């Protein structure tokens, strides 16, 4: 043990398990650990896990220099519609902003499919007369008496949070700020989010939704952060706490309190960051990341060996118009419940059993079978060796619960529970494969060129089945897949994104350095100053920083913009000519045509700031070549097969394993299909490929 070690602890709170990675930043040694989540108070699992880690490894709390924390709490609450009771304040005449949305049908093929339920019920949407024109000029000031009457209504409805979205506030935030200030005075302690503060971008529905989602999860997340700090202080840990963000970076807990929407995809984004490191080590650039936890499966495509960002994604049913690592989240995880609809069709998810009561096999009162119960019934996971033997499962209970589902779907015979389990696995796999194929089709790429990076408690278990279904040829499983997002948290830098709206036109005059372009450059400089000021408050561990710049443009009269990222080597001396060239090139690639002589309209300027922390290197493995000591019978493709069983900790570099096989480790179980084989590299990463 070094004399003065310094530790960085990464934490990822999931619906079923809480994961930990401890990194010694002096010698790059890593420790991994999993703790069952405590849904009623998620911070309790954090305290239990850190307490176990520091006591068993003789770590002094004074030597813990940074806690980096990712969580799916906000994401799960949105997917499962379990957020706070919130109200929405809007401009007069826009009460139906959520109901109207973008007037798009949920399905292009089924006109009878119902639309999603609005985030806020109509009786909790309140109109006020304050108003601005499209240039941000006030044409109707806010009425103090009207706001006081509104406060009374909010108090009567016992709302926990409020979102404010007034028309054209992206041009001028003054009215929203005044209304918010008065509501805070009248309703002390009420959490209020102004759309112009959280994300001042054009389009009232998307801006309203961002503010609404922030308000929807803010009470839950604020309570969690408070509990987290208290429990860490109880352990004697008083170091800075960072929360992983949607963009793959981190922000301070103070920033996350006011802007929890920035963290809603934090856990999944961290996994993508760590996946890129694994891809670099394996010399693989075309990656699909696959994070399957207890509640959801999160999928991202990295076609060039780095995270792909988007300003338009979905969280559950809702579009999110913020810079995020491009991740698709679906309600299919290890804890996803099986159900049978009114037509007798078998369904998997989106509801999850969580950690309490959890899957039936946990023996904690759950009576609805889950995907994990299916793994156990099929023989993929071992009831005696789950979590490294720390938790014993009940296979008989899982089979009995599956038999009840089998009856509902009309299966008979002695193997009906196994047939039901395999059918449920196929349903879940098909959902995931469909999402992957959709994402790859949007990129216009061949799935056979991509490797699947599998992690999460159930990701490694399900990965080979998913790869087989989606026609992928390679699966990468990192050393500790069950705690991989926590590793991503440890590796992540500090990052935040800023946005500003401009109405700049690029034409022949602009290319000669017009007044509009000079205004844009001034705005960019102001954003850089704001970003640097924010970064100074984020902690003393930041060693240096850099910016990322992107611009939203369109041809005149186009409905939608195209976001153009400015390459690092072209930021110096940024000019209308450079921006035009990048736009026309991207437009040709995406749509097959462009208009090089046309004027361009700039609507949005985006800036990201990245604060670099000390880099941590991933260690090499020290395993030994092992012989197969036992086998396990697995139900696969309608019959029993014998699978060889290995211990992951004993695999050395170069070890080759042919399927069917099972590789066990404390945080997960890896299932290798027949006609596939796995080989470990020097870092312990398993590359599973078709024979």
Fold and architecture overview:
By secondary structure, this protein is α+β, with helices and mostly antiparallel strands. Among the domains are: 115 residues, 2-Layer Sandwich (Nucleotidyltransferase, domain 5), CATH 3.30.420; 119 residues, no CATH class; 53 residues, no CATH class. The strands form 9 sheets. It has an 8-stranded mixed β-sheet with strand order 19-14-13-22-23-34-33-30, with helices on both faces. Helix 2 crosses helix 7.
Topology:
Elements: E1 7-13, E2 17-24, E3 30-36, H1 42-56, E4 64-71, H2 73-79, E5 86-91, H3 97-100, E6 125-128, E7 131-132, E8 138-140, H4 144-156, E9 161-165, H5 174-186, E10 191-194, H6 195-198, H7 204-234, E11 241-244, E12 250-252, H8 253-258, H9 266-281, E13 287-292, E14 297-302, E15 309-310, E16 313-315, E17 318-320, E18 324-325, E19 328-330, E20 336-340, E21 346-352, H10 371-378, H11 395-408, H12 416-443, E22 451-455, H13 459-470, E23 474-477, H14 484-491, E24 494-506, H15 515-536, E25 544-554, E26 562-565, H16 576-591, E27 600-612, E28 630-636, E29 639-647, E30 656-658, E31 661-665, E32 668-672, E33 676-680, E34 686-690
Parallel strand pairs: 1-4, 4-11, 5-6, 5-9, 9-10, 13-22, 22-23, 29-31
Antiparallel strand pairs: 1-2, 2-3, 7-8, 11-12, 13-14, 14-19, 15-18, 16-17, 20-21, 23-34, 24-27, 25-26, 25-27, 28-29, 30-33, 31-32, 33-34
Helix pairs in contact: 1-7, 2-7, 4-5, 9-14, 10-11, 10-12, 11-12, 12-13
């Amino acid at each position: 043990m070094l004399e003065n070690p310094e530790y960085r602890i990464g934490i990822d709170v999931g619906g079923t398990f809480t994961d930990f990675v401890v990194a010694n930043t002096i010698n790059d040694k890593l420790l991994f650990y999993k703790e069952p989540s405590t849904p009623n108070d998620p911070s309790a699992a954090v305290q239990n896990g850190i307490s176990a880690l520091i006591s068993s490894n003789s770590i002094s709390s004074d030597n813990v220099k940074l806690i980096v924390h990712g969580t799916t709490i906000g994401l799960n609450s949105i997917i499962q519609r379990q957020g706070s009771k919130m109200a929405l304040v809007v401009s007069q005449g826009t009460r139906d902003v959520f109901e109207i949305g973008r007037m798009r049908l949920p399905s292009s093929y089924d006109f009878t499919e119902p639309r999603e339920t609005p985030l806020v019920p109509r009786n909790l949407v309140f109109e006020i007369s304050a108003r601005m024109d499209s240039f941000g000029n006030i044409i109707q000031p806010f009425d103090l008496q009207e706001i006081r009457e509104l406060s009374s209504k909010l108090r009567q409805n016992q709302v926990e949070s409020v979102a404010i979205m007034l028309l054209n506030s992206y041009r001028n935030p003054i009215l929203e700020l005044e209304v918010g200030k008065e509501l805070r005075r009248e309703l002390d302690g009420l959490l209020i989010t102004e759309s112009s503060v959280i994300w001042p971008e054009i389009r009232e529905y998307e801006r309203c939704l961002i503010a609404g989602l922030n308000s929807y999860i803010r009470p839950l997340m604020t309570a969690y952060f408070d509990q987290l700090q208290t429990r860490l202080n109880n352990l004697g840990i008083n170091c800075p706490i960072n929360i992983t963000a949607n963009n793959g970076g981190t922000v301070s807990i103070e920033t996350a309190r006011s802007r929890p929407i920035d963290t809603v995809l934090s856990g999944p984004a961290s996994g993508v960051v760590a996946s890129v490191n694994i891809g670099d080590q394996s010399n693989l650039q075309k990656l699909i990341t696959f994070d399957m936890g207890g509640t959801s499966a999160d999928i991202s495509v990295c076609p060039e060996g780095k995270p792909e960002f988007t300003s338009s994604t979905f969280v559950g049913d809702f579009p999110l118009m913020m810079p995020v690592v491009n991740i698709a989240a679906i309600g299919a995880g290890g804890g996803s419940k099986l159900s049978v609809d009114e037509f007798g069709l078998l369904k998997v998810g989106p509801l999850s059993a969580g950690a309490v009561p959890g899957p039936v096999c946990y023996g904690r009162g759950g009576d609805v079978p889950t995907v994990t119960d299916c793994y156990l019934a099929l023989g993929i996971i071992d009831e005696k060796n789950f979590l490294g033997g720390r938790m014993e499962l009940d296979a008989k209970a899982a089979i009995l619960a599956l038999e009840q589902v089998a009856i509902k779907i009309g299966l008979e015979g002695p193997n009906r529970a196994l047939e039901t389990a395999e059918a449920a696995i196929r349903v879940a796999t098909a959902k995931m494969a469909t999402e992957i194929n959709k994402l790859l089709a949007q990129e216009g790429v061949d799935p056979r060129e991509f490797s699947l990076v599998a992690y999460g408690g159930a990701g490694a278990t399900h990965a080979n089945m998913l790869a087989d279904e989606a026609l992928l040829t390679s699966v990468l499983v990192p050393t500790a897949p069950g705690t991989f997002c926590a590793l991503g948290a440890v590796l992540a830098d500090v990052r935040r994104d800023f946005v500003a709206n401009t109405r700049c036109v690029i034409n022949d005059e602009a290319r000669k350095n017009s007044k509009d372009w000079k205004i844009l450059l001034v705005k960019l400089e102001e954003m850089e100053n704001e970003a640097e000021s924010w970064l100074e408050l984020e902690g003393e561990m930041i060693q240096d920083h850099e910016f990322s710049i992107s611009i939203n443009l369109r041809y005149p009269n186009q409905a939608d913009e195209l976001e153009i990222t400015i390459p690092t080597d072209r930021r110096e001396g940024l000019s209308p000519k450079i921006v035009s060239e990048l736009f026309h090139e991207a437009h040709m690639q995406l749509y097959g045509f462009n208009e090089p002589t046309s004027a361009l309209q700039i609507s949005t300027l985006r800036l990201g700031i990245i604060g670099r922390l000390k880099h941590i290197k991933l260690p090499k493995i020290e395993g030994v070549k092992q012989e197969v000591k036992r086998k396990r019978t697995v139900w696969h493709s309608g019959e029993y097969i014998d699978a060889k069983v290995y211990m992951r900790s004993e695999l050395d570099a170069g070890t080759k394993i042919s399927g069917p096989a099972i590789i066990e480790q404390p945080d997960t179980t890896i299932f290798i299909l027949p006609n596939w084989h796995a080989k470990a590299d020097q870092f312990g990463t398993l590359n599973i490929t078709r024979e």
